[in-house]
Amino acid sequence: MTRSWTNPLRDPRDKRLPRIAGPSSLVIFGVTGDLSRKKLMPAIYDLAHRGLLPPGFSLVGFARREWEHQDFGELVHDAVAEHARTPFRESVWNRLAEGIRFVQGTFDDDAAFDRLAETVHELDAERGTGGNTAFYLSIPPWAFPIVTKQLSRSGLADFDENTWRRVVIEKPFGHDLASAQELNSVVNQVFPEESVFRIDHYLGKETVQNILALRFANQLFEPLWNAHYVDHVQITMAEDIGLGGRAAYYDGIGAARDVIQNHLLQLLALTAMEEPVSFEPGALRAEKVKVLGATKAVGPFDETTAAGQYSGGWQGGTKVPGLAQEAGFAKESTTETYAAVTLEVQNRRWAGVPFYLRTGKRLGRRVTEIAVVFKRAPHLPFDSTATEELGENALVIRVQPDEGVTMRFGSKVPGTTMEVRDVTMDFGYGHSFTESSPEAYERLILDVLLGEPSLFPVNEEVELSWKILDPVLQHWAKRGVPEPYPPGSWGPPAADRMLERTGRQWRRP
Ligand code: BG6
Questions:
Q1: Do 25 and 132 touch, CB atoms closer than 8 A?
Q2: How far is CA 128 from CA 27, 122, 374, in A?
Q3: Most buried residue among 23, 72, 290, 405 by CB atoms closer than 10 A?
C-alpha cells in the first residue's frame, strides 16, 4: 500500500507547525520579585528569540517603585542577560524593548489602575496588540482579591467576542481547602474559569509531559501499570538548597504546602490516571480530576507520614545554617522543610498500592523522579544465592536533572555460574534528541497567550489536592518543631521508619 503524502505546511491541523502567539500584551504584577526576574522575563525573551511572539508584543510592569519606562527596561535587560536560556542577541532585545512599559502604583491605588488601563489601550493603538491582554499575578495570595477587583473596576478585565483577557495565578493557591475555595470564588467573580490560568510549572516541564507519551503512546508499559504488577510508587522531589532569603514566603507554609499540594500531586495524577479519550484540554483534566478524587492520605499519620526540619552543619564542604538560624525564620519555627506522605488511589487499578511522596530542602542532591517499583516475580527458579543481589524491577522517570527514563531489571552476571544482579537500561534526552528542552515557563507563557489550557490545573484539581492533604496538615499542626535532620542527608529518621514498617526502603537516587 502506498501512503499519500500531504505537505504538512498546507495542513492547518499539523501540530508540528510552530505555534506562534497572536497579537497580545502581558502585564506582570510583582516585577521586582525573584520569580519574575529569574523565570518570567527570561522566558519572554526566549520566546521572542525563538520567533514565537507576535511582532507588536508588549510587556507592561506594574510596581510601587518610582520608575520610568527605561528603568524597568533595564531590569528586564539585566534579568534576560543573566538568566535567559537562549543567547543574548541585540536585535531580538531591541525589538522586545520597543514594547516595554512601566506603570507605577500600589494595589489600592485606583488612579494607578486607570493609568494601567490607558497604557494597555495606547499599546493596542500603537502596536496592534488586538485588545488581548494577560495579567500575570506574581504576587502573594492576599493581594489576589484586591488586584482582581481593580482589574474589574478599571475595565481591564472586560473583553468581547473579538478579544480576550486572561489572568495567570501563581501558587500558593490557598493554604487549605477552605481558603482555596474562597480564593477561587474571588477570582471567578471577575474572570470566568476559562480565562483563569493557574500555573503549576512542573506541568510545563518536558519530562512531565513525557509521562503521557510514555504511558499512552506505547504498548509496553500500560498492561503492567496496575495493582497486579506494581508494588508501590515513590515520587521524590529533593533539593540541596536551603531557604535563606525565602522566609517571608516559606515560614508557616512548609514543604507539604509548597510542593506536595501542587507539583507532586500533579505528578501522581499523571502517573495514576486513566487514558484520556483525547488530548483535548477537557478530556485530560477530567481524568486528572477523577484520579485526584479517588486519592486519599493513608493513616495512622504518626506512622505513614514524616516531617522534618534541617539543622545546621556541613553540606559538602560548606558550613550551612539550620532553618531556625536562617534570616527571617523564628527560632522556634515549626515549619517543616521535609515532608513525606503515604497516599492511596482508591480505584480498581490501584487499590492497595501505596504512593509515597516526599520532598525536602538541603537533602543529599537535587533530583526529581517518579519510580514505579514492581512486585517480585512470584517464583525464582534459581538457587537462593544466585539472586541475593536482585532487587525489584523498576521504571524510573527522571524528571530532573539528567532527564530521561531508567528501567531496572535482573541480568546474568557473566561467568560460569548463574548469578543474577540488577542492571539498568537508560534513555537520556541528551543522547536521543538534538533539540534542547524549553524552560517550563516558556511553554506555559506561550500557552497562556495562545489560550491553550491543557497544562493548567482547574479549580477542582486545586481543591481536590487540598482535600487530600488537609487531614495530614491538621494532624501535623498539633506537633511542635519537626524532627531535625542534618544537611546533605535524606531526611529525618521518621521517614526511614515510615517505609521500613512496610518492609520497603526509599530509593537513594
Ligand atoms: C517552587 C517551590 O514551586 O519549585 C520552590 O516554591 C522550589 O520551593 C521550586 O525550590 C523548584 O522548582 P524546580 O523547577 O527547580 O524543581
A1: yes
A2: 15, 9, 56
A3: 72
455 DSSP β-pair partners: none
Output the nine-digit C-alpha cell for 407. 528501567
Mean pLDDT for the chain overall = 94
Beta strand spans in 401-442 (E): 404-412, 420-428
Distance CA(442)–CA(85), nearest Å, equals 10
Ligand 1 atom closest to 366 (CA): 16
Ligand 1 nearest-atom number relative to CA 368? 16
User: Strand pairing of 313-315 and 100-104?
Assistant: unpaired
Query: Which residues constitute the domain of residue 344?
Result: 203-373+455-500
- The CATH number of the domain holding residue 342 is 3.30.360.10
Predicted confidence (pLDDT) at residue 136 exceeds the cutoff of 80: yes
How far apart are the CA of 259 and the centre of ligand 1, in A? Answer: 7
| In a shared domain, residues 114 and 253 | no
Q: How far is the CA of 200 from the centre of ligand 1 (A)?
A: 10
Mutate to test the pocket of ligand 1, among 85, 263, 336 (most ligand atoms within 8 A of CB): 263
- Quickly list H helices, 217-370: 247-250, 254-255, 265-272, 281-293, 301-304
Whether the per-residue pLDDT at 351 is higher than 50: the answer is yes
Q: Tell me if 419 is assigned to a ligand binding site.
A: no
Q: Which atom of ligand 1 is nearest to the CA of 258?
A: 6
Taking the CB of residue 424, how many other CB atoms lie within 10 A of it?
11
Please tell me whether 239 is known to bind a ligand: yes
pLDDT, tens digit, 9 for 90 and up, residues 270-305? 999 999 999 988 999 999 999 999 999 999 999 999
Within-domain flag for 304: yes
Residues in the ligand 1 pocket, defined by CB under 6 Å? 239, 258-259, 368
Residue 60 lies in a domain: yes
* 442 labelled ligand-binding: no
Question: In the structure grid, which three cell numbers stand for residue 132, read together?
Answer: 488581548
3-class SS at 484? strand
Inter-residue contact 200 to 456 (CB < 8 Å): yes
What was the pLDDT predicted at 16?
63
User: How far is the C-alpha of 471 from the C-alpha of 114, rounded, in Å?
Assistant: 44
Name the residues annotated as catalytic: 263
pTM of the model: 0.94
In a 13 Å sphere around the CA of 215, the CA atoms on its Cβ side amount to: 20
Which CATH number does the domain housing residue 63 bear? 3.40.50.720
**Is 357 within the bounds of a domain?**
yes
- Burial of 457 per CB tally in 10 Å (0-12, 13-18, 19+): buried
The residue assigned the cell 515557563 is: 441
Q: Alpha-carbon distance 434 to 92, whole Å?
A: 24
Q: How far apart are CA 27 and CA 134, in angstroms?
A: 6
